[in-house]
Amino acid sequence: MADASYPDDLLYHHEHDWARIDGDVATCGITWFAQEALGEIVFYEPPQVGTTIVQDQPYAEVESVKAVSDVIAPLSGEIIESNTALADSPEAINDDPYGAGWLIKVRLSDQSERDSLLDAAAYSATLE
Amino acid sequence: MSLQGLETAQQRDRARTIFEKSKPGRRAFVGPALDLEPRPLDDLIPAHLRRAQPARLPEIAEPEIVRHYNRLSKRNFDLDTGFYPLGSCTMKHNPKLHERVAGLPGNARLHPLQAPAQAQGALELMFNLQEALGEIAGLAHVSLQPSAGSHGELAGVLLTRAYHEDRGEHRTKILTPDTAHGTNPATVTMAGYEVVKVATNSDGGVDIDDLRSKADEQVACLMLTNPSTLGLFEVNIAEIAEIVHGVGGTLYYDGANLNAIVGISRPGDMGFDIVHYNLHKTFTQPHGGGGPGSGPIAVCDALEPYLPRPQIVARESAGGGGTIFDLDYDRPKSIGRLRGFQGNYGVFVRAYAYICSLGAAGLLEMSQTAVLNANYLLALLKREGVAEYLPVAHDQLCMHEFVLCGTPMKRDLGIRTLDLAKRLLDHGVHPPTVYFPLLVDEAVLIEPTETETKETLDDFAAIVADVLREAGEDPSVALNAPYTTPVRRLDEAGAAKRPVIRQAM
């Protein structure tokens, strides 16, 4: 994805993660800004299904040609699905961060946490 | 301007290994005919100790061997070829005298298992080097064993653990600033501690409030470089030391940036308990692919009992025959051995030669000149208009290195720090460190060192200004650089994802 994009139907964490909430399940990934700042991603190890993640805490790492960086959980819950295809093709995180580059699906443990996340406009404003 | 179609002879000459050049029956050297009575091979080497198949060695004529290695050497960029301002790596000139001293038979041919009584010269050199290093750091007790900076870090953290556990304390956390070298958190994790990052304040120093909030009885240690990775002196070091010591933790000094302060200030006087030196940086040694490193450590009195074993000791001989040097294994609280033998001895010889050549006054001048060169270059880059696209990350007097931020260059000229780095290669300059430290966007970390002339620094500033001017006219030139190197722009992502790590022989 060549140009910056922050879809309106997502919620954003200030550490450059997004969440798409559908009932009590959220799909999570890293934002366009994050993948652009990291550069080409060369390694990602999908976390295990069943792992409990905690809002604001790291749950995975992405390695780019520049650095290894923590991926921060935008919400708390249990991982119910992990995008294992990324182990072989981590470049999907660069090419399609909101689609094929999704990282995990989480069953949320605390619906009220979503109130701490930003909408697209507010998140974009933090990048200025 | 289009340099796209051009290819140098070097680029056309596909890399071939010495095995690919091999032809059966060719020889570089043929020995004279045997003029002794031949003896059966079984008498010389028992059959069960002999290999079943001959070793697969390349068969090549001498001129082809000479050309092969000469050609390879020209594909390398090294300090003997050009300016190498690789920030945080201290790529200073390595005096050729050191090679001569390291190559003396008593140094080069000494066997590492030689009994101490027959290696007195080497032990004396190591003992004297320890004394000098201890004086430079302001911490009296030194071990030369660690083989690299990161190895010294591990030694220091293991000493910290031994120290706490000996007092019956089991601490769990180690603090590192978010500007730290990546080896710091890696070392902490390897030693079984949890990494807790401390924030950086707007002046580029440790955020004291954040440090206070994180310093508790579970903190074993704070690892710090001073000057920091931003090239800034940590002015609050006394207060930082007080906070860490106040909760019973140790203070660790990462010596990566020691080149800025030798003879000016001492980590021990600042309150540090443990220091590692990068002998290969501060005290000269061909490094970064050119040779091995060495990361000795120095500690305060409280940590001395835990130093690696054996320690080099000096004592007066019973008969009044002068000083005798020996290896002391009787250290019951020691963390043990960190490696085979006593360390990278060749590096010790070069470092000791350097310290003896310069003396105290010379070492002071070394650091003063390193800081002066960095500030001169920074001022020059500003004067050349570079600051408009590459502003300095923290605009204050720097130490031996400084960090520029490439955000305006990326936004206004359409080239990234990586493209600038690649284009510098075409000008015969090794790029500075890029994308580090991580908290500066599009970072360029420049360390000129004290061994460069004013003319070299002037040239470098002009080259950077040139690359930016060129990018203003046509960014594609930098985007497709380099053009003149043995290989063009590399597929870094492909190299990481699909590395070719085996070569058919």
Describe the protein.
The complex is a heterodimer of chains A (128) and B (505). Chain A contains three helices and nine strands; from the N terminus they run E-E-E-H-E-E-E-E-E-H-E-H. Chain A is α+β, with helices and mostly antiparallel strands and 128 residues long. Chain A has a single domain (11-102), classed as OB fold (Dihydrolipoamide Acetyltransferase, E2P) (Beta Barrel), CATH 2.40.50. In chain A, strands 1-2-3-9-8-5 form a six-stranded antiparallel beta sheet. In chain A, strand 6 and strand 7 (68-72) form a beta hairpin. The longest helix of chain A has 7 residues, at 32-38. The radius of gyration of chain A is 13 Å and the shape is globular. The mean pLDDT of chain A is 93. Chain B has helices at 9-12, 41-44, 62-74, 96-102, 105-108, 120-137, 149-166, 183-190, 208-214, 237-246, 267-270, 279-282, 345-383, 407-413, 417-426, 454-473, 475-479, 492-497; strands spanning 141-143, 173-177, 194-198, 219-224, 250-255, 274-277, 297-299, 311-316, 323-328, 402-405, 433-434, 443-446. With 505 residues, chain B is of the alpha/beta class. In chain B, helix 13 (345-383) packs across helix 16 (454-473). Chain B folds into two domains: 97-355, 3-Layer(aba) Sandwich (Aspartate Aminotransferase, domain 2); 360-493, Alpha-Beta Complex (Aspartate Aminotransferase, domain 1), CATH 3.90.1150.10. The longest helix of chain B has 39 residues, at 345-383. Chain B is globular and about 85 Å long. Chain B has 18 helices and twelve strands. In chain B, strand 2, helix 8 (183-190) and strand 3 (194-198) form a beta-alpha-beta unit. The two termini of chain B are 42 Å apart. The model of chain B has no long low-confidence stretch (mean pLDDT 93). Chain A binds chain B through residues 37, 39-43, 63, 65-68, 90-91, and chain B through 182, 418, 435-436, 438, 441, 492-493, 496-497.
